[in-house]
Every structure is written in C-alpha cells, then in structure tokens.
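Encode chain A's predicted structure.
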Amino acid sequence: MWKDFFYFSKGQRIGIIVLIALIVLVIVANYTLSYFFTSSQKDGTAFLVEADRFKKSLVSRDSVRQAEWQQKYEARQREYEEKYKHNSYYSSSGSFDKKMTYTLFQFDPNTIDSIGFVRLGIKPNVASGILKYRKKGGVFRSKADFAKVYGISPEKQKELEPFIAIAEIKQVKTENVSTKRTDIVVELNSADTTLLMQVKGIGRGYAKAIVRFRQQTGGFVTVDQLSEIYGMRPENLERIRPYCKVNPDLVQKLRVNIATAEKLKAHPYFNFYQAKAVYELRRRKGKLKDINDLKVLTEFTSEEINRLKPYLSFE
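Encoded structure for chain A:
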C-alpha cells in the first residue's frame, strides 16, 4: 500500500529532479559567493573608509572657503590702511589711538571743516556730528556752547578752550511788518480766513473758528455771537467788534418741514431731545407753519426759540 503514496508519474518525477537540482545549485552558489566577497561585506569596513574620505573632503572645502575669506579680509585691511596711512589720527590697526599726535591751533567751530577738527584731536564721528548740527542751522555763540558737544571729554574741552575763537555773529534784524489793517471791516458770513486775519486781533486760530461756527450754524445773525467762539475772550471781542459786520440775508436757514431728526440735531442750537420733539410734532401735526408751533413743546424755552428763529425756515 505504501507504494501508492510514493508513486509519481513521469512528469512529477522530472519536476522533483529539477527542484532538487535547483536546491543544490543555490547551496553551492551561496558557499561560492561568500568565498569571493567575505572581505567587503563582513563588517562594512569599506563603507566606513568611504564615509571617512567624504568627511575629509568636506573639511577641506571649508578650509578653502575660510582661507579665501581670510585673504579677502586681509586685502580690505591693507586697502584701508593704505587709504588712511597719512592720517595721523589712526593707528596702523585702523582704530583710534589717543596717543597719536595732533596739532592745536586757533579755530572757529562755526567755520572749521571736519579735517580741521580731526587735526585738533577730535574724533571723526564727533566732527561729523558737529557738521550735521551746523547744517541744520546750529550755531556756537560761546565757548560754553562748544563744551556741550557730545563726545568731547572735559579734559579735551579744557585743552581746546584757549584756541576757540568765535567770530561775532551778526544778527539780521528783520522788520516785523504787520499786515493787519485798521481800516477794514469784514462781513462775518462771507469773509474767508485770509480776509478775517487782516483784522487786528484775529489770528489764524480765531479765523478758522469763525468759519467753523458759520458752517455749523448757517451764519452769524449778530456780531455778539463771536462770544460763542471757543477761546474768545471779552477783551478780544471788544477789540475786533468795530471791524466786523453781519449781513443776516446770507444766513443759510434750516428747512424744518423736510429736515430729518439727525439734520436738526446737527445744528448747535438743537439738542437731541429738541430735535426729536420737533420731528415727532411734525409727524403728528403735519406741516409746521411758523416758529409759534414750537412753543407747545416743553423741550424749548422762550430764549431758545428766539435764538433759533433766524435759522429756521417753514417753507
């Protein structure tokens, strides 16, 4: 019966033989290849050698870059020393040396140039600062002024003080020709700031405030309203009153029957509650006929109504 289990057809026997042959071939190849490549694959020595060689190449490149940078730096240093070798204020290293020789001579700090300051023993950066100060209009009027220069030590200032000779500065006195006129009368509802400033006592600030008040209210009804200008003192008002006049016809009136509550509230003589009350009254009653219609509103006093009257139109 066991023969039944080990019976193979011809094709199966050929396959078994081929499989065994391949197994034997693989075993032989494994031993053969390990014999030829043992030195290069056992411990990775070749890889480590190659890695070490690569690292050394990187180091050599960095060294080359460092050497090139050093050469460029030395070249710039030589160029700098060659440029300033005749300047006694610098040492051979290119830095300021307090022990370097300098010359003391009489000078005017308002006219001397930077080279002159350096010859006196003043640091170049300090000399540059002095020239910038002069360029902006700065003037040294005394030796004490020069002593305030930042960067000059008290010892150096004491050394230079006997040699400071400041020429007399001629101050040009300009005549303050006033453009104010005493024969002009301006109309407050039409004059611009330039014309208003012609009046003695009205400066730029007052002129702008007058125009601003005119734009907010619609215009001036009386000259006395100048007292409502911010900053207007009573003595100033009395001074400019004779030179001001008002044309009430130029007042821009507020059309009550079509103005919104926001428009009414924007007027300086209306507050929020008054503007709202007028708007609600108009909505309930319809078109308002005249200023007397506002007298029924408790939000207004008689003085406030009289003040508003020239500014309201009931068309």
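Strands lie at 186-187, 244-245, 254-255, 312-313.
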